[in-house]
Design a protein that fits this description.
Layout lengths: L2 E16 L1 H16 L2 E12 L2 E13 L4 E21 L2 E20 L9 H14 L1 H32 L1
Antiparallel strand pairs: 1-5, 2-3, 3-4, 4-5
Length: 168
């Protein structure tokens, strides 16, 4: 069985005016273009409460880095009290959203995802020896790559939300 190790977990929160549709597109496009992951949406749910709604979105992204290492990124959005509002941007009235959003990211390094070292106790011993003595530095390098990709995603998303707030 492949060896999975969570190497990154963090979240950001934002409360204010933003376009959920634009945020969703920005996050999706950034992950696909900048990290190269194949992204799937595992969950999307909306709960309407009067004139507002709560939205939950969960994505899972994977990318094969080598024939031994694979990156998995899980992103979840929890949007609460999302309302449609109109704001002035310059001299133009635009429709956008107002609410709270929390974005959580978990990054996992998957080793031996093709199960080349599975089948017997001896093969597992070989994998542990291989990782500990032969490719130890490479394991650390890929852990750092996964963590930095996740951290950069959250930083870019936070910057995007801050920029959106300054436009309004």
């Amino acid at each position: 069985m492949a060896e999975k190790e969570e190497v990154y977990s963090s979240k950001i929160s934002y409360n204010g005016i933003f376009s959920f549709k634009d945020l969703y597109k920005f996050c999706h496009d950034w992950l696909v273009e900048e990290t190269g992951v194949s992204l799937s949406e595992d969950k999307y749910s909306e709960k309407i409460k009067g004139d507002s709604k709560d939205i939950t979105v969960e994505w899972k992204g994977t990318k094969e880095m080598t024939d031994y290492f694979k990156m998995e990124i899980k992103v979840s959005f929890k949007v609460s009290d999302l309302k449609n509002v109109e704001v002035m941007q310059g001299n133009v009235k635009i429709s956008t959203n107002k609410g709270s959003v929390e974005i959580s990211v978990k990054g996992t390094l998957v080793r031996d995802y093709e199960d080349k070292f599975e089948g017997s106790g001896f093969k597992k011993f070989l994998r542990e020896t291989y990782e500990k003595y032969i490719i130890h530095d490479r394991v650390l390098q890929y852990k750092e790559k996964v963590a930095s990709s996740c951290d950069e995603f959250l930083s870019q998303t936070k910057a995007y939300l801050d920029l959106e707030a300054k436009k309004k």
